[in-house]
Design goal:
With 307 residues, the chain is α+β, with helices and mostly antiparallel strands. The chain has a single domain, classed as Phosphatase 2c, domain 1 (4-Layer Sandwich), CATH 3.60.40. The chain has helices at 39-56, 62-82, 132-138, 144-148, 186-189, 194-203, 208-221, 246-250, 283-306; strands at residues 2-11, 21-26, 29-36, 90-91, 93-99, 104-110, 114-119, 122-125, 169-174, 180-184, 228-236, 256-258, 271-275. The strands form two sheets. Strands 2, 3, 4, 5, 6, 9 and 12 form a seven-stranded antiparallel beta sheet that branches. Helix 6 (194-203) packs across helix 7 (208-221). 45% of the residues are buried.
Length: 307
Amino acid sequence: MLVGRAAGLSDTGRRRRQNEDAFVCEPPLFAIADGMGGAQAGELASRLAAAAIEEAAAAGDEDGVAGAVRAANARIFERSLSDPAVAGMGTTATVALVDEHAETLTLAHVGDSRAYRYRAGELEQLTTDHSLVAELVRSGRLTEAEAAVHPHRSVITRALGTEAEVEVDTLSLRLEPGDLVLLCSDGLSAMVRDDEIARLLDESGRDPYVASEALVRAANAAGGEDNVTVVLFELLEGQPRPAAGAAAAADRLPVTAPADEVTSEPVLEGVVQRHGAGKGSRWPALLLVLALLAVAALVIWWSVLLR
């Protein structure tokens, strides 16, 4: 089994001026980070988390992925201590690492971003929200309907960077060819019901590129009250890619994407990164050709002046 098409899309939404989300979409590693602490601080926290997770998630077991999240926590916390301008910043983190050989998915999770699995028409939430309303629902003090409109539904009870140590939820589960895995910030899950997410995944023909755009569009149509970020990938039958080395690096596109940086193929008002056969950009080669032509023209012009 191997990871097939994958897409990541981040959009500012309709109410926010800046995007404090970041994501990693670098098969077989995927992650979502939703920053908090104000525009500059939240954006910095999510970017630090995405970078640290990508650097540290080398092992394919629960300890390795959880260790990557803890490394991200340490980096954010240390930066917060050293820079008063961003003191108290934090971020959620939901990380997914696929072991194509063992056909397993390992998740590490902190906060209220989510991971879902879509299989045979059924959408299953794989992570548990670390939020005030989620705790109240689990204790029976709120219904799901009441939680959806609660004035403090955005308050989270666990985050990266706010303390020196963080408790990380981990989960490993078996995958099957045909599974879709969705990571999203609460900008999607708070605006679009799970049954609607499932419907959009089905109507997209299970195409991660089409589905990611449809999900962001739906969140914005419902009000777009927060930044919305989705990462979506499919599992296929096939030969797993090399475990390590140059062949593995050449077989994937690096697509770590802090919000609003220069990325490929802008969609809606956000940024998108995609992974799949034939999706590489031809701009670098074109720019090189144009540069060479400019140099040649300059040489010809200079030689004419010297005559």
